[in-house]
Structure formats: C-alpha cells, structure tokens
C-alpha cells in the first residue's frame, strides 16, 4: 500500500488533450462509465478529426474544458441512435468553451443526434455547434441551409405520424440538463413540418439561461425562438434592473 502525494493525485485526475489521437484514446477510456468521474479533461489545441478513426465518447461524467478551441471534421455515419462528439453527458458533468463542427448522417436508426451530444443531462456552457445533422427525432445542431424531400410532406404532417421530426433544436434536440450562454445563428427546422422546434432546444426538461438565437425557426406545432416546448413547468427569473424598467413602463 502506497499513499500517493497530492500532486500525483492531481495529475491522475487531469487529462490533457493535445492531438486527435489523444481524443480517440479518451473515447476508448470512457467506455467504462465510471472512468471519467472526478476527472478534468483539458483541450490545449484545435483538433481536426478528418481521417482519424474516432468513435463518439460513450459516456462522460467529468469536466471537459475546451478553452475556446474547435474540434472539426467530426463525421459519424453508419447505424445507431444517440450520436455526437459525446453520446451521453451525464448528470453532474460539464462541457464548456468548445466549438464542434462536422457532419452526422447515420443510416438505419437516427434518433437523438447532435454535434455536441446525443443526450445531455449535465451542463453545456458557452458552446457552439456548426455543420450538418440529418436524422429523424431529437436532432440538435442543424445545418444552416437544411434540405429535405418535400414529396412526402403530407405523410410527415399526418397525425398518424406524430414522432416524425420531433425535438429539433439549434444546440440540443432534447435536454434535461443545463444549457447556458450558448448561441445559434443557423436556420432550424422545416416549413410546416415537425413538433417541438426551437432555436436553442426543441424540448427542455432542464434549465436554459443566457442563450441567444438569431436564426429562423420553422415547424408545425410548438415552435419557439429559444425552445419549442418546456416541461413540466416554466420558471422565469428577472433581474432587479429589468423589474425596475418594467415597473416604469407600466406606471407610465
């Protein structure tokens, strides 16, 4: 039995990512759902994943500090649900200050897709996603100029086909965690198609704070500039300055 020094413990809990190969190794390590608990992952460079044998990070429970860097060239094809740079961001995890760009276009199963994460139960802070995501349900990070086949418009809008194109958002399709200080400027959704369409999140059962959307948002039902559908309840908080200004306006 050897008692490790504090410096050694700190080194073990910090993971530095300098190359695309380092990121691929992180993905392999995170196959075990407990491996990333208590770890701080620090990205020190911009990374290009073109030509790299990279699979989505299966599950992440630690802190990923992007330091304002960009991970580009993310390309995910094949069959499978819950796809993105991270498949699952777990409760208690944080991903921040990161830009992800690339293309996700699976065949076969196509649910829960997002450039940053397929499923978020943690915190996404100051992140940007750009590129193309094509799939069926719970889609995040849509392309700026989406294209679709309108020949099946009637079928897509049929009440017998309600699951089609649901939970679509610029940053996250469905989030039960926190999305804070994130922005979207791309077009989201399709004209008269889809349910739960939002500029930031299609559907949220978590917390949205300080997010900005300047892109157009289109859909059939439950469409919003920030979020399409909030569940199970809505809580709005305002600063004292805002309340003072509102009181002045109302009092004339």
Structure description:
Strands 1, 2, 3, 5, 7, 10, 11, 15 and 19 form a 9-stranded parallel beta sheet that branches. Helix content is 13%, strand content 39%. The protein is mainly β and 252 residues long. It starts with 5 loop residues before the first helix and ends with a helix.
Low-confidence stretches: 1-5, 7-11, 135-139, 142-163
Compute the number of strand runs: 22
Q: Note the beta-strand portion.
A: 35-45%
Cα distance spanning the termini: 74 Å
Q: Output the radius of gyration.
A: 20 Å
* Helical proportion, percent range: 10-25%
Overall morphology: globular
Number of helices: 4
User: Structural class per helix/strand content?
Assistant: mainly beta
Q: Which features does this protein show?
A:
nine-stranded parallel sheet, five-stranded parallel sheet, mainly beta, 22 strands, 39% strand, 252 residues
Topology:
Blueprint: H1 6-12, E1 14-17, H2 20-29, E2 40-43, E3 47-48, E4 57-60, E5 63-76, E6 86-89, E7 94-104, E8 111-114, E9 117-120, E10 123-125, E11 128-133, E12 137-140, H3 153-157, E13 166-169, E14 172-175, E15 178-180, E16 183-184, E17 195-198, E18 201-204, E19 207-209, E20 212-213, E21 221-224, E22 227-230, H4 240-251
Parallel strand pairs: 1-2, 2-5, 3-5, 4-6, 5-7, 6-9, 7-10, 7-11, 8-12, 10-15, 12-13, 13-17, 14-18, 15-19, 16-20, 17-21, 18-22
């Amino acid at each position: 039995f050897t008692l490790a020094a504090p410096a050694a413990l700190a080194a073990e809990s910090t993971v530095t990512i300098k190359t695309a190969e380092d990121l691929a190794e992180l993905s392999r390590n995170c196959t075990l759902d407990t491996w990333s608990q208590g770890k701080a992952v620090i990205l020190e460079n911009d990374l290009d994943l073109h030509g790299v044998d990279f699979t989505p990070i299966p599950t992440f429970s630690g802190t990923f500090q992007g330091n304002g860097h960009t991970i580009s060239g993310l390309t995910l094809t094949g069959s499978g649900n819950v796809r993105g740079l991270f498949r699952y961001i777990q409760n208690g995890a944080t991903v921040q200050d990161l830009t992800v760009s690339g293309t996700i276009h699976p065949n076969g199963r196509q649910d829960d897709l997002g450039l940053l994460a397929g499923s978020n139960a943690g915190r996404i802070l100051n992140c940007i996603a750009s590129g193309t995501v094509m799939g069926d349900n719970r889609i995040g990070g849509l392309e700026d100029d989406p294209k679709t086949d309108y020949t099946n418009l009637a079928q897509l809008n049929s009440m017998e086909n309600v699951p089609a194109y649901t939970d679509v958002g610029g940053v996250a399709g469905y989030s039960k965690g926190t999305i804070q200080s994130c922005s979207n400027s791309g077009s989201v959704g399709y004209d008269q198609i889809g349910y739960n369409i939002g500029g930031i999140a299609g559907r949220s059962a978590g917390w949205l704070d300080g997010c900005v959307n300047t892109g157009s948002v289109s859909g059939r039902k439950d469409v919003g500039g920030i979020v399409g559908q909030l569940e199970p309840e809505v809580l709005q908080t305002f600063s004292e300055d805002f309340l003072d200004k509102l009181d002045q306006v109302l009092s004339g």
